[in-house]
Design goal:
The chain is an alpha/beta fold and about 325 residues long. Helices cover about 50% and strands about 10% of the residues. It has one domain: Rossmann fold, CATH 3.40.50. Helix 1 crosses helix 9, helix 2 crosses helix 9 and helix 5 packs across helix 13. The longest helix has 19 residues. Bound molecules: adenosine monophosphate (AMP), FE2/S2 (inorganic) cluster and zinc ion (ZN) (2 copies).
């Protein structure tokens, strides 16, 4: 197996590119794919202050590493979701990464700062854990980005994630979610800009990136996500990809080129219908945003009122 670029010994084959790469050229490929995504979707500008949401997994740690290499000023944000040992171990990976490189890491602990965690919050609200978790993450990401005065929030969603979410949304023709399923959501209505610079990389590639760069990441999957629909969609797409390499890339990028615009009105309609949460000031579909409703059910009281704080509400991750 020879590297496509230098003909030296290859360390990875990438079937959708029909090519093999040595360590040096694979790492360069990862940087180039991120640079290309950022440029194609106008995600970031030189000098932007970026907050990267880091879970301790391979994608978000690889993203932090690559954005720093590309010269952006990037701080990290870790949310402690209170999912037992999984949360403890994930936090350790993030802190170790930040400490070793002298990086600035912000932390939000759901239990101590908002009085609930994902297991008891989802039980109390009778919501599936991933739904309570998703809405909490979106709310806290927005709030931290705004409070810290960052230009954009970056997440580690990769091509496999985006193709699987798209697949689920198409199976149910979820117009509003399809409207928002973009690699960049511009700032507006008090929402921060949100970007997904890893959309051109698969999770196999981000894992290989971390191994080659010596980044120690959380390998375990979240125990609460076991058996959820999203993992089923990933498995189905993996089966198709194995038969026909490149299908995920085509599915996702052709959606962006040819179909995403058809749903744009649904986003405008949804935003026009937003009110302001009377508890925390975030945009809300009713009087109280879904994060404050969740916190209220989980704790028997609302979270502290934070006038002026706004966050995105009710959208799929
Ligand atoms: P997930 O929704 O778990 O697939 O994660 C998608 C992205 O959200 C990750 O790549 C991270 O950027 C971010 N993320 C997930 N969990 C956390 C967390 N506990 N703290 C900070 N960011 C997170
Ligand atoms: Fe959110 Fe597992 S990380 S439910
Ligand atoms: Zn090479
Ligand atoms: Zn609220």
């Amino acid at each position: 197996m020879k590297c496509r670029v230098c003909r030296g010994p290859a360390v990875i084959d990438i079937r959708r590119h029909n090519a093999n790469f040595c360590e040096e050229h694979f790492l360069k490929l990862c940087h180039d794919q991120v640079t290309r995504a950022i440029a194609a979707f106008d995600m970031l500008s030189p000098g932007d202050r970026v907050l990267v949401a880091v879970s301790g997994g391979k994608d978000s740690l690889a993203l932090w590493d690559i954005l720093l290499d590309l010269g952006y000023e990037v701080d990290g944000l870790y949310l402690g979701l209170g999912i037992g040992e999984y949360t403890e171990a994930s936090g350790c990976h993030v802190r170790r990464f930040a400490r070793a490189r002298g990086l600035n890491l912000r932390e939000v602990d759901l239990r101590s700062e908002h009085g609930f965690d994902i297991p008891n919050g989802s039980r109390a609200a009778k919501r599936p854990p991933c739904s309570a978790c998703g809405l909490s993450k979106r709310h806290l990401f927005d709030r931290a980005t705004r409070d810290g005065g960052y230009d954009a929030l970056a997440t580690g969603h990769n091509l496999d994630d985006e193709a699987a979410v798209l697949f689920g949304n198409v199976l149910r023709w979820e117009g509003e979610y399809l409207a928002r399923q973009l690699p960049v959501l511009p700032a507006g209505n008090g929402f921060p800009r949100k970007v997904k610079p890893l959309v051109r990389l698969s999770e196999r590639e981000t894992a290989a990136y971390c191994v080659l760069r010596g980044i120690d990441y959380q390998v375990e999957e979240c125990p609460m996500a076991e058996g959820n629909r999203h993992l089923g969609y990933k498995a189905a797409l993996n089966a198709v990809e194995a038969q026909s390499p490149g299908t995920k890339h085509t599915f996702y990028f052709n959606f962006l080129d040819r179909a995403a615009g058809l749903f744009r009105d649904r986003m405008t309609e949804a935003e026009a219908g937003l009110d302001t949460c009377t508890r925390c000031g975030s945009p809300a579909a009713g009087e109280i945003c879904s994060f404050c409703r969740l916190a209220e059910r989980a704790t028997g009281a609302g979270p502290p009122v934070r006038p002026g704080s706004r966050s995105q509400d009710g959208v799929l991750a």
